[in-house]
Design a protein that fits this description.
The chain has 15 helices and 16 strands. The chain is of the alpha/beta class. The strands form four sheets. The chain has a six-stranded antiparallel β-sheet with strand order 2-1-4-5-6-7. Strands 10-14-15-3-16 form a five-stranded parallel β-sheet, with helices on both faces. About 30% of the residues are buried.
Length: about 650
């Protein structure tokens, strides 16, 4: 049963006007001269549902937005999309009764808004699948979108006479065939998931195989020893290391026994060293004390010397009354001097006690007594220092003697064992380094074997997955007869439309799902003429649409949009007759299946076989597509066509 998709109307809004074009009947013909906007009207339908439409400069410059009233599955909504502004990457879903915005979707997934494609596919109840693909030789995936499905709905004028559902686009080929299989249930989610898994396994197998080969080649180039040789060598090295460790332990034990015998001597040596250290500290302390005592004696002697000099000066100079300066010989009698001040230095005259001979004598006696006491203490402290120095020499001598005695006792026992222990330790370290090197090589081989196991596991998983895919594909193989049935219907349609009188047979290729006429592929038919190829292309789309209507388990969209079904046809009687037969088929399809299908056709002329099933949208230079914008006329249109 065809998935239900139908346009009810298209509203085009400009800055100054708004116009609605309706598609009420099962078939609508949009007619008018070249350049009046027929193709642009169809492109706006594609634009509204999120497609990448080719919009003319007139549309981009003047149209603000387009709204399409659509039936999608069981839903009846209005889709609105702006043109050429910041929001043109979004589509609003409106309530058809109130025009209130129900939701907003992103044309391209941006992380902020849900994608429009998911909404439309869900509304159509069409499976949203991810198909396996490859890029730069690496496995990847690609999402099937509503825009991809719309390629089966919209036959554009620019390629209707050269390709079938974009089959010339290598990037779209995988999607086109996947969509055909999904519409005819020749594949399903299980098969696609298994195909994606096989692609991932292929990529993983390639990486693991390359990694394994690189490690194996590296090991073979860097070390010729096999894994068995490495294992044997590792066992031998570990045995030698065990013997070296045992020998070193034995030497250390002997050393411990020999050192235990002179433990008393070592204890006496430690005590002598401690005593020598303490004696040295006593010497330092006595030296500091003697230096302090000597400083006191020197200070008292200095005070006595200063007292003697002061007494002498007083005795010699006090009787003199200076009238001239003793330095510069200038007279002092004219110099103003305060009372009780020296006429030479201008300082206060000394007090009487400072020049009293008795006081001076008492001070000298006191200093003499201090000097005697200080010298006595200094002499006593000097004796203490001498005694401390003697003790320090004795303790140093004792410690030196004990050390020489210990060295003499241990020279023949300890030193040789220390050398042997050092040699044994170096031997053990060398063996451990060799063991580490061999272990790393062995671990590399273990890693290589692990990689080989991974490669085998991936191959086994790929085999199982391939078997699962074949089994599921075999279950769906019976539906391949639908392609043959479609081929027969296509052949019948070709015989009715008669694109060319010499055509004898037509069918659908069972692998590419493209039309084949007289055993010739579609692209090879293009040399026979554009009008003939256009008719065959239209017949292919009609065959798909009719097949979907008559087969409940086929998910072909119920809408078909055809731009210029008579493109590249001539004006002779045979070409006109072919166009007449094509429109008769349109009329029959619309009348018989009025509630199940919708045809929207753009043509330069009105339908040659008008009937009740055909609605009309007529455009001309006075009434072009874009409302409120005057058309420049046919001359401008022809000139633009010539320039292009």
């Amino acid at each position: 049963m065809a998935v239900h998709l139908r346009f009810r109307s298209l509203t085009v809004t400009t800055a100054d006007a708004e116009k609605t074009y309706r598609f009420d009947g099962p078939a609508t013909v949009v007619s008018g001269p070249s350049g009046t906007g027929k193709s642009s009207l169809l492109m706006l339908l594609k634009h509204v549902v999120g497609g990448k439409a080719v919009l003319t400069p007139a549309v981009r410059d003047h149209v603000i937005s387009a709204r399409a009233e659509v039936f999608i599955g069981e839903q009846h909504v209005i889709l609105k999309r702006t043109v050429n502004d910041a929001r043109s990457g979004q589509v609003d879903v409106l309530d058809p009764a109130t025009l209130a915005t129900l939701d907003t979707y992103a044309v391209q997934a941006d992380g902020n808004l849900p994608p429009l494609s998911d909404y439309l596919l869900a509304a159509l109840d069409f499976p949203r699948e991810t198909i396996p693909s490859s890029r730069d030789g690496k496995a990847t995936t690609r999402d099937l979108t509503f825009t991809d499905l719309f390629a089966y709905v919209y036959r554009e004028a620019r390629n209707i006479d050269r390709e079938v559902v974009g089959h010339l686009d290598p990037w779209f080929k995988t999607k086109r065939t996947a969509l055909f299989k999904l519409m005819f249930a020749l594949t399903d989610s299980t098969v696609l998931e298994l195909s994606r898994k096989l692609g991932e396994l292929k990529e993983e197998l390639r990486k693991k195989t390359d990694e394994y080969e690189n490690v194996k080649n590296f090991l073979g180039a860097t070390d010729p020893r096999t894994e068995d040789q490495l294992r044997s060598e590792l066992t031998s090295l570990r045995d030698m290391l065990q013997r070296a460790d045992a020998a070193m332990a034995s030497l250390r034990h002997e050393l411990e026994e020999s050192t235990a015998a002179d433990a008393v001597l070592r204890r006496d040596l430690r005590a002598a060293v401690d005593s020598a250290r303490d004696a040295a500290q006593d010497v330092l302390a006595a030296q500091d004390l003697v230096e302090a005592r000597a400083a006191v004696v020197a200070q008292v002697e200095l005070d006595l010397s200063r007292l003697d000099r002061s007494t002498t000066a007083i005795e010699k100079l006090s009787p003199f009354d200076f009238v001239v300066c003793p330095r510069c010989m200038q007279r002092l009698s004219t110099r103003p001097v305060p009372e009780d001040h020296c006429v030479v230095c201008l300082q206060d005259d000394p007090h009487d006690q400072d020049v009293d001979p008795a006081a001076i004598a008492q001070t000298r006696r006191t200093l003499d007594l201090q000097l005697q006491d200080a010298r006595a203490v200094l002499e006593a402290d000097g004796g203490v220092l001498e005694a401390a120095q003697q003790r320090a020499q004795q303790t140093d001598f004792l410690a030196h003697s004990l050390r020489r005695q210990l060295d003499a006792q241990t020279r023949d026992l300890v030193a040789p064992r220390f050398d042997a222990i050092a040699d044994a330790s170096a031997r053990a370290a060398s063996l451990r380094a060799a063991i580490d090197s061999v272990t790393q090589l062995r671990d590399s081989w273990t890693r290589a074997h692990s990689m080989a196991r991974d490669v085998r596991a991936i191959k086994e998983q790929r085999t199982r997955t391939t078997a699962e895919k074949k089994a599921r594909t075999a279950e769906l193989a019976a539906r391949q007869t639908l392609v043959s049935d479609l081929g027969r219907d296509f052949n019948t349609l070709i015989s009715q439309l008669r694109p060319a009188p010499w055509i004898q047979s037509a069918t659908i290729d069972p692998s590419s799902y493209l039309p084949v006429v007289d055993n010739v592929s579609f692209e090879s038919l293009q040399a026979d003429g554009g009008g003939i190829v256009t008719c065959i292309n239209v017949a292919y789309s009609l065959a798909l649409l009719e097949f979907g209507i008559t087969h409940p388990d086929v998910r072909v969209p119920s809408l078909l949009i055809i731009d210029s079904p008579r493109k590249a046809s001539g004006s002779n009687l045979d070409d006109q007759a072919r166009g007449h037969r094509t429109y008769q088929r349109f009329q029959t399809l619309a009348e018989v299946n009025a509630s199940q299908v919708q045809l929207i056709i753009a043509d330069n002329d009105s339908a040659p076989t008008p009937g009740a099933a055909f609605g009309k949208i007529e455009l001309d230079y006075d009434n072009p597509l874009i409302p409120g914008v005057a058309h420049p006329g046919p001359e401008h249109t022809h000139r633009a066509e010539d320039e292009s």
